Amino acid sequence: MSLINMAKREINCKIVYYGIGLCGKTTNLHYIHQAVNPQDVGSMVSIDTETERTLYFDLLPLELGKVQGFNIRFQLYTVPGQILYQQTRISVLKGADCVVFVADSQASKLQENIECWNELQEQLRRMNKDITDYPLVMQWNKRDLQDTLPVSVLEKYLNPYRVPSYEAVAVTGRGVIECLRVGINTTLQRLERF
User: Fold this and answer.
1) Could you tell me which of 77, 79, 97 has the C-alpha nearest to residue 89?
2) What does DSSP assign to residue 177?
3) pLDDT in tens, 146-168
4) Residues 6+ apart with CB under 8 A from 164
5) PANTHER family from the entry (predicted)?
6) Contact 78, 16 (CB under 8 A)
7) Axis-axis angle for helices 25-35, 176-192 (nearest 10)
8) Residue 77: enclosing H or E segment and its boundaries?
9) Count H helices, E strands: the chain?
10) Is-contact 186 137, C-beta < 8 A?
């Protein structure tokens, strides 16, 4: 749930990039950090292991100006994808206003993606979120690799609610800003209803 600070006239929203290990979540944030106007973005905080895998989370603060006199800030987080960090994923997911599910498009990763997607759905249910009315964006990442599944297969197994989805290559930025833009817009639209 967005944090509204009436005294400071600020609304802080949280977008979480969720997916299996090495699917491109951190790469998304690195690309966004480089692509956004330096005045609008804070420092990126990243806690990585020696193998460059995210250990806890990445945080990228992003300021988007004012809406009805309130400063709008988005904080972009990633979760660690490795199975042993399930509790950390749950902690980072708490309070999320939107989730960008980053799927590794490689055929060999389909089962892992399905398990991760099922885990996300279960966690959102436990947080009393109606997944059919929750800001969610699907990103089919690594589309530049040779052994990728057709988008129709990814849609069949990972997008039963037919939320917006985009093909992406996070290392080059293809599809990254589009996913973020939709995540921000759906979050803001949801805020307007309250």
Assistant:
1) 79
2) H
3) 999 999 999 999 999 999 999 99
4) 137, 138, 182, 186
5) ATP/GTP-BINDING PROTEIN-RELATED, GLIDING MOTILITY PROTEIN MGLA
6) yes
7) 90
8) strand 70-78
9) 5, 8
10) yes
